[in-house]
Amino acid sequence: MRFDLERLVRENIKRLTPYSSARSETDGTGCVLLDANENSFGSPLGDQLHRYPDPYQLEIKKRIGVANNIDPSEIFIGNGSDEAIDLLFRIFCRPGQDNVIVCPPTYGMYEVSAAINDIEARRANLSKEFQLDSGAIRKQIDENTKLIFICSPNNPTGNCVGRNEILNIAKNFDGIVVVDEAYIHFSDCPSLVSEIKNFPNLVVLQTFSKAWGLAGLRIGVAFARRETTAYLNKVKPPYNISRAAQELLLSALTSNLNPSEFIRWVIEQREQLKNSLMKFSFVQTVYPSDANFLLVRCDDPVVTRAFLLSRNIIVRDRSKIELCEGCLRITVGTAKENNALINALKEYEESIVH
Question: Do 77 and 65 meet the contact criterion of CB atoms below 8 Å apart?
């Protein structure tokens, strides 16, 4: 199947003349900068914060490209992965006409973004094993289906989705397949970034919020063919990543900071937490996880969560989501935080036994 990106792009986006910001015309190096209406006298905070940032984050893209063996032109940097998700709707989906496919239970922002952009979100539920139902996906596809969202490792179930199933869908779908890998670094599953060269309709999302521990910076990454990233850059706001966020991320990327040690700690704590949770009489199932959280099915998730909240411990109730009935989602904390959780659950168990 020959993939035609231009066929998918909305006509108004093709015609769009993007805003030309001052720093997109020149980086200003060595110049007297009187073009961008910045405050020439500086900022009380110093550190060049009175100047607009690089609108295309070129130095960051170079370093991410080297780390992932991919050309910087095939990288888009967004204000969290959520920005890339929203831009994909705006580029490819005509409001009130087109549709996308989501695979619940999964990350809720896909459907929220669809609703914001007046796009129908069609559901092809995962199997009971939390894997893709390719037949259900095929049944939902029609001539107006533009995007298919797949989260792997999936949120809230925590498991990786079958790689071959994802690639088979991409091979046989003439729209865009978006694979959200926010939690990939906690998993043994290989990333699909390497498949960008083989699948022109593949967009892979990652983030610095999880394994890198930089959620406060709000920086996400989309990997795709350069034709696709060019449209993402065309539609995005001029300065979507602040100078402060760019500088802090560059500092992390160029320092000796190695997230692998943090990842190892998370995985170790994840296994210890799983073993501890399985000992409680009210816990029915602790599902295998490739992420930094556990999906836990218990007898009464609402009451359990309320008890934990009374002990100043917050977990996520996912019991109203299809296939997650009776489930709580519990983030893997530090050893101290996990011990506090287990001690509170011991107290809860004693209260329901007596």
Answer: no
pLDDT tens profile 9-65? 999 999 999 998 887 777 667 689 888 999 999 999 888 899 999 999 999 999 999
Comparing CA positions, the residue from 177, 199, 229 lying closest to residue 64 is 229
Do 5-254 and 259-353 share a fold?
no
DSSP 231-252: HHHHHS-TT-S-HHHHHHHHHH
Domain 5-254 has CATH 3.50.20.10: no
Asked if 242 and 57 touch (Cβ cutoff 8 Å), the reply is no
What's the CATH architecture for 259-353?
Alpha-Beta Complex (3.90)
- Give the C-alpha separation, 236 to 55, whole Å: 10
Q: Which of 151, 170, 148 is nearest to 108 (CA)?
A: 151
User: What residue segments make up the domains of the chain, in order of their start?
Assistant: 5-254, 259-353
Of 258, 205, 262, nearest in space to 83 by CA? 205
Per-residue pLDDT reduced to its tens digit, 254-288: 987 779 999 999 999 999 999 999 999 999 999 99
Interatomic CA distance for residues 342 and 273, integer angstroms:
8
Q: Please tell me the pTM assigned to this model.
A: 0.95
